Amino acid sequence: MTTDRRPRLAYENREFLESDDGRALRILAEYLEPLRRFRREHVQETIVFFGSARLRPDGPLGRYYEDARQLARLVSAVGRSASTSGCRTSSGRTRT
Predict the structure, then answer these.
(1) N or C: which end of the chain has fewer CB within 10 A?
(2) Cβ atoms within 10 A of the Cβ of 79, count?
């Protein structure tokens, strides 16, 4: 009796995904997962703000944080979808 000892697929290997070598896949997933949500919600036009989760409104780059939020509000006011890479609407609510 032989045992099938095929290696785990990389995308099913949590240890690999959480490693430095798996970083590229995590970054790609952060791009693709919101696109999937947009398709599911039939969002056809959107502006996405990519940035850093480390940016804080009260930090040294806080001005840019507030500028991005203001731009999102303006874009939304004219009837367009605006989202950050974390899929937040301009009002700050997380879309699920």
Answers:
(1) N
(2) 7
Length of the chain measured in residues: 96
| Closest to 87 (Cα-Cα) out of 96, 79, 78, 74 | 96
Encode pLDDT of 20-68 as tens digits. 999 999 999 988 998 898 889 888 777 777 667 777 888 888 888 888 8
Q: Please give the pLDDT value at position 95.
A: 42
Cα separation, 79 vs 76, whole angstroms = 5
Asked whether the beta carbons of 65 and 52 are under 8 A apart, the reply is: no
Q: Minimal CA–CA distance to 86: which of 56, 51, 40, 61?
A: 51
Residue ranges of the domains in the chain? 10-84
CA 86 to chain CA mean position, Å? 4
- What is the pTM for the complete model shown? 0.50
